[in-house]
Amino acid sequence: NRCLPNYCEHGGKCSQSWTTFYCDCNDTGYMGTTCHNSIYEQSCEAYRHQGKTSGFFYIDSDGSGPLGPLRVFCNITEDKIWTAVQHNNTGLTRVQRADTKKPYTMFFNYNSSMEQLEAMINSAEYCEQEAAYHCKKSRLLNTPNGMPFAWWVGRANEKHLYWGGSLPGIQQCACGLEESCLDMRYFCNCDADREEWTNDTGLLAFKDHLPVTQIVITDTNRSNSEAAWKIGPLRCYGDRQFWNAASFNTEASYLHFPPFHAEVSADISFFFKTTAASGMFLENLGIKDFIRLEIRSPKEITFSIDVGNGPTEATVQSPTPLNDNQWHYVRAERNLKQTSLQVDSLPKKVLEAPAEGHFRLQLNSQLFVGGTASRQKGFLGCIRSLHLNGQKLDLEEKAKMTPGVKPGCPGHCSSYGNLCHNGGKCVEKYNGYSCDCTNSAYEGPFCKDEVSALFEAGTSVTYIFQEPYPVTKNASTSSSAIYVDAVMSKENIAFSFLTAHAPSLLLYINTYFHEYLAVILSKNGSLQVRYKLSKDGLLIFTINSGNFANRELHHVKINREGRELVVQVDQVLKIKHNFSEIDFKAIKSLTLGKVTDSLSLDPEVSKANAYGFTGCLSSVQYNHIAPLKAALRHPSIAPVTVKGSLTESSCASIMEADVNTATTIYSSSDPFGKTDEREPLTNAVRSDSAVIGGVIAVVIFIIFCIIAIMSRFLYQHKQAHRSSQAKEKEYPENLESSFKADIDLQNTVSECKREYFI
Fold this sequence. Notes:
Residues 1-36, 410-448 form the EGF-like domain. It comes from Probosciger aterrimus. Residues 35-87 form the Fibrinogen C-terminal domain. The chain crosses the membrane at residues 690-715. This protein has 758 residues and is an alpha+beta fold. Among the domains are: 84-239, Jelly Rolls, CATH 2.60.120; 245-409, Jelly Rolls; 451-467 and 490-658, Jelly Rolls. The protein is built from ten helices and 46 strands. The strands form nine sheets. Strands 5, 6, 7, 8, 10, 13, 15 and 16 form an eight-stranded antiparallel beta sheet that branches. Strands 17, 19, 24, 25, 26, 28, 29 and 30 form an eight-stranded antiparallel beta sheet that branches. It has a seven-stranded antiparallel beta sheet with strand order 42-41-40-35-44-33-46. The longest helix has 39 residues, at 680-718.
């Protein structure tokens, strides 16, 4: 019986043939020939590393180990990556009529085993749970010297007598440590036993005591005594292992660990970076058996293993050198059916195991990392996030006490800087990296989240460029030297917009020398880029590829480097042009929406400015400046002025709402729902609908008249003696039908109008 013992792991179902066994891994959360490998990442940090954003995920803290996956919420922010686990009662809960003889007790269920929670907590840098106790004549810890009236129980089923914001072993609340309690004779606000409501709230942050599994309350049975409590979800940040690294500075240096015990199944995974042509990642020897991973040449990684049947080697050849000082991922696995090696996203090398012979891997010497027992072929470079069968090896702690090896490894941005988008800057950290979105029009952990807002007809956002010196009204060309710091020989402009209104003024940049750049929507919905430079005069670039006032999101990029101008709309190149002038002199301001100082505008721009901009603008970037983001995020410190209504919103979600909703009623505050008699595009739609409806009604009426006349003519020939009588009746009938047709025509037009408003 090849399924006895069952070598399918994690609940995989075993089946067999005459020659081998098979594992069905469906619904186990694991994969591979023996269901050994978890399909989930080990932490929220690993999901963030893949470019994921906040959401619910399963994490498997011990990888291929015995613990199952745990459902968590990953809150991936710019600063920290938080992992949160909810329990069965995170709301504020009221308590009455509890005393020492009949205490109130609540047990917390996290929908997971304690071992899973402990693994998550132990892997994190920091964990916390909020503890809040609201009280009215209900004592909490009975400080300073009494027996507590409330306590909580932690992971080891231990009773804890300190409250949130205090430290283990100190029977106090946060206000006691801060010396800010309502009554300084007590160390908790609630211990003052007052008739009015107060509270003691703080964070429980000693990892070894978390999570909170139980709370007990015993002082709400006196007259007017009442309490309410809240224990928040378990929250942790930081993955102590994902960025855990060691730098090997000499070929003779290495780290050693206890033997690797993996008789039947073994998996090894890590990241490395090096500039050396060859070196040993790790080696573990037995009497005859061994396991070894090395870089043999700049393009070759080899996994060697012997379980007593002779050496087996799996080699992956890379088309590009791997000693490029960039992080590369290696995963090697061995089980009863296969030996495999994976490097980055290159094709996996798989070798089938022999059907007969030895199959248990027996190792008894120390595990060497970064070298060998013979101190030859050592590794020069960095190894990070080393896992053996899901267990994490603390390279940094070992490196602290080993000569030739340093904890940590700098230079993460060289490998992961491409994860920072839209002008975000990669910033090195001791454990990993972060994306600095200061000079980007976007935000979020990867500078990918749009910053957008709704504009109404009179809304204006003006970013004022700092003047290097006072400016006189009659500035001559010779005075241009004072603006040397404000001369721009290039513009990198990008923004997205969504509107149903034309004409509109989207963006306007002007200088102290009456030069300007304007982006407007013309009356017919076409997009115009208008440049006025002193030597070239006024240049107008019109993009007629459609009506851009169509309630869809459009992306505009305007790049001018020296004399060359490139304009892209919706990722399609529309315009290329070469200027004779190469720079703007003394930029004064950049305006989104309506320009309030409109005296110097040319007629076309002034006409568009009369309507301003009504719609949604998103992620506006001008060189290293993000004016819309500055107005929404830093209005008090940025040199930006906002006039009119500016409401933060998501342009993308507005467009999705339009697609998903066939009929939408807009309130008067919605810029897209406004009706304006001055809107030429709207009036055109109305008048076109009326004309088409009228023409159709008239044509149908004429056809009926012709049929009636022909019928009447035939009828006269057959019954001539009744012609006079028929004529007397026909006129009022025709009059009535004509009147009805006119009513129908009016109803048709009015119905068209009503459909537009809906």
